[in-house]
Amino acid sequence: MEPSALRTYMALFTFLLFFQTIKADSTFNPGEIKSRFETMECIVQPRYNTTVEGYIKKYLSWDARLASKILGRAATYFPIFEDYLQEHDLPQDLKFLAVLESALNPKATSPVGAVGLWQFMATTGKGYGLTINSEIDERSCPHNSTEAAMNYLSKAYERFGSWELALASYNCGAGNISRAMKRARTDDYWKLVQFLPRETRSFVPAFLAVAYIANYYHLHEINPDFPNLDMQLTEAVKVFDDIDFPTIAAVTGLPVEIVKELNPAFKKDKVPASENGYYVLLPRRVTAGLNEYLGLLRPDNGTTSEMPELPAVVDTSAYLPDEYYFSSTYKVAEGDKLSELGTIFKCSRHSLRAWNNLTSDRLKKGEELTVWFPKELVHFLPQEADVVALPAIMQGEAALEKQAFREEREIPGKLKMKSLKTIKPLSGQAKSQNGKNTAKKAPPTNAEKNQDPGFIYYQLQRNESLLDVAEQFPGVTLQNIMDWNEFSAKKPPMPGILVKIKKQTPGPAEK
Q1: pLDDT tens per residue, range 265-307
Q2: pLDDT for 65-107, tens place per residue?
Q3: Rounded CA gap, 341 and 332, in Å?
């Protein structure tokens, strides 16, 4: 992010960005590239010139193995970036900036000390709220560093009103941009570029070249080297208590090496205790187990629980991530949107694009999408059954009818389905079959006294998602619940919280 750091990384990582699996001249057709480039949708107006062409040509002429690896890393980190970009109401194209900064390597360190996916210097990182000490460096945390980058970019765009200038300021600093604007007497990036530091003059063209490759790599025979599905389908758990990586590994059934790989911010292979908590990134299929263990450390009722004996840590040789998932097929219906399908399938739209070689978010009615699911969820505490709820709209090998979604059934060789839990309404709202309220109203608690009379309140159960809640109320969407309760990535719902549902919405007891 600092000029000297980025100058070094522009040199070091340009050749790492995206490459060709065969000689560049076999698919490098300047006329075709120019035509695609000029019609490309991007936050920066595509302006094809010799600098952009030079970057694209360079990206397509180096080692294909390294190119594939970087494209594969996007499967892990782009979904995280996309969530934060959406939360901050920023353009999705900004995720390409991290490719320029670090080649999507969270452990990347420049010779001058810039660290992480977004290459923050220590002083700048601390200024944007990142913790940097002997135990943790949040510049290497995909979540915290991305939040910091979003805040920087939001401020830069608010100040300059142009994504070209905001990106350039990320490279050379806002002060240099202001001085260039004053000298050039314009706020047009392309007219003031000559007054910018030398390393910044090619930064926006390089960004455009990355955007081109990200959109059209398939036309240049680049094959991404995707990581295993455990590295693609991840989820962050906020941890407040001191816990070391071997304990996390024992609780989740992961090798310690996988916990380390996903969490490079922790310097001593442990999460230190913190009042604010630290994010621990893990495969989504194992997060329930860690949450259960953490719940024993901090029981809801305040009593001390007897801790079960930890199982042995899994050896790396016994870790078989390809065996933990199965694929199913979904046929696209009229009106389907990739982002909405991602919410239903509990994956990102980027994952759906990667799994199905989609070049855009556009879907065609009738086309089939491959979707991957875990065969089972890892729990630390005994469960009635290992259950994975396969979305009702799935078709193909699972052969599920929509009305069978809530039924208990066996899918041969795959997973067991059971009916979704019904969230019981609070404050005596249960109704009899004739629809009349038959429950005696209990004396109001302090929490109930503060409730908005325009809403019904439901208690979120452990291992229950907001999507599960929304499905029980006709006409209620996940976004409705997020808006009514002001939930977000920074303010996620926790088990036991009272979820507000607007009245006049039929509940599960009224269906």
Answers
A1: 999 999 999 988 999 999 999 999 999 999 888 765 555 567 7
A2: 677 788 899 999 999 999 999 999 999 999 999 999 999 999 9
A3: 10
Question: 226 Cβ partners below 8 Å, 6+ apart?
Answer: 72, 75, 232, 354
| Exposed/middle/buried for residue 331 (C-beta within 10 Å: 0-12, 13-18, 19+) | middle
Q: What is the DSSP letter of 137?
A: B
Q: Domains in the chain, start-ordered, CATH in brackets?
A: 3-220 (1.10.530.10), 229-318 (no CATH), 324-417 (3.10.350.10), 446-510 (no CATH)
DSSP 139-205: GG-HHHHHHHHHHHHHHHHHHHS-HHHHHHHHHH-HHHHHHHHHHHT---HHHHGGGS-HHHHTHHH
Contacts of 301 (CB under 8 A, 6+ apart): none
Which residue carries 């210097």 as its tokens? Answer: 121
Contact assessment for residue 230 and residue 283, using Cβ atoms and an 8 Å cutoff: yes
Proportion of the chain in helix, strand, coil states, percent, rounded to 5: 45, 10, 45
Calpha distance 495→235 (Å, rounded): 16
| Cβ(78)–Cβ(350) below 8 Å | yes
Question: CA-to-CA distance for 201 and 44, rounded, in angstroms?
Answer: 15
Q: By C-alpha distance, which of 44, 301, 308 is closest to 190?
A: 44
Indicate if the alpha-carbon torsion angle 169, 174, 176, 178 is positive or negative. Answer: positive
Angle between helices 142-160 and 163-172 (to 10 degrees): 120
What percent of the chain clears pLDDT 90, i.e. is strictly above it? Answer: 48
The CA distance from 464 to 474, in Å, is 18
Give CA–CA dist 410/258, Å, rounded: 31
